[in-house]
Write a structure and sequence with these properties.
Layout lengths: L6 E3 L2 E3 L1 H23 L4 H34 L9 H23 L7 H31 L13 E3 L2 E3 L2 H21 L6 H16 L17 H22 L19 H8 L1
Helix pairs in contact: 1-2, 1-4, 2-3, 3-4, 4-5, 4-6, 5-6, 6-7
Length: 279
């Protein structure tokens, strides 16, 4: 749409793509702060996890670039930087966050606070889907502005001109889907105290991504594996992971919805754990 630089800042060109990515990250962090506060996370754990999240985001971009470079290497036989891949960033960022949160947390929280990060991790697990989804939505708008991740050619229906042809605006459709999913996940989390927002996110986005990949037009920039795109295989993993979590919660008798109660910072306990003990 408009991949050209808008202005230069500190010697670097600033584009609409970059602005959308930046806005997405800021909104993501803001939602994380507000939602975890609302759900009763202690100040110490919130501050600690906030810094860990920033580190995970930075390294997640590195994972996204590495992921795309592997795509390019498989397709073209050349290992080089060729943009970023969202799913690679999610997987890499999540891995960094979980490792740093639990490993560093062991040394950061001792005495009376020992084990507090583990107790409050379910709050993060339930909050993360909303934060990831809204950041991804802004990122897809950025893709629309940059003209990347474009759709297949089409002569009818709602189309946009991109890469020399009229195409299905898959970036726009995905952004709309993600904003709707963000709203649903947020309502479930804050109003109904839903304890399964992560499996809902994994299954919902997995199904959506598998379907929308069919309408992508940048085939030459990706590669097939056993008849499907890599993102479709990853979507299957997302769906399987979501189903596994639902079954795991059912077997362990972890409630899908938590009791509606106000949590006080000075006496924060994980509600899910308390409910399980009561049972």
């Amino acid at each position: 749409m408009y991949p050209y630089p808008l202005f230069t800042f500190l010697g670097q060109s600033v584009t609409l793509y970059g602005i959308c990515i930046g806005v997405g990250i800021l909104v993501c962090l803001l939602c994380y702060f507000l939602f975890t506060k609302r759900l009763g996370m202690s100040n110490d754990v919130q501050d600690f996890s906030f810094y860990v999240a920033i580190i995970a985001i930075v390294l997640g971009f590195g994972a996204a670039a590495l992921y795309q470079s592997v795509y390019t290497w498989i397709a073209e036989g050349v290992f080089k930087y060729n943009g970023i891949t969202a799913m690679g960033g999610f997987i890499g960022g999540a891995a960094v966050f979980i490792f740093a949160y639990f490993f560093i947390g062991k040394f950061m929280f001792t005495g009376n606070n020992k084990g507090l990060p583990k107790k409050q991790f379910p709050i993060i697990l339930n909050t993360a889907p909303s934060c990831i989804t809204v950041a991804h939505a802004f990122g897809r708008i950025g893709c629309l502005m940059a003209g990347c991740c474009y759709g297949m050619e089409a002569s009818t229906g709602f189309v946009i001109y991109n890469h020399g042809a009229y195409r299905v605006p898959v970036q726009l459709y995905e952004a709309i889907f993600l904003f709707i999913l963000f709203a649903i996940l947020t309502i479930l989390l804050l109003k109904y105290r839903c304890n399964i927002t992560m499996p809902i996110y994994l299954i919902s986005y997995g199904v959506w991504r598998f379907i929308i990949e069919i309408f992508r037009g940048d085939v030459t920039e990706r590669t097939f594996f056993m008849g499907m795109f890599p993102s479709q295989w990853q979507s299957i993993i997302f769906i399987a992971g979501g189903i596994f979590l639902l079954v795991f919660y059912a077997v362990k008798k972890i409630p899908y919805f938590l009791p509606k109660q106000e949590l006080k910072e000075e006496n924060v306990e994980n509600v899910a754990e308390d409910v399980i003990k009561d049972k």
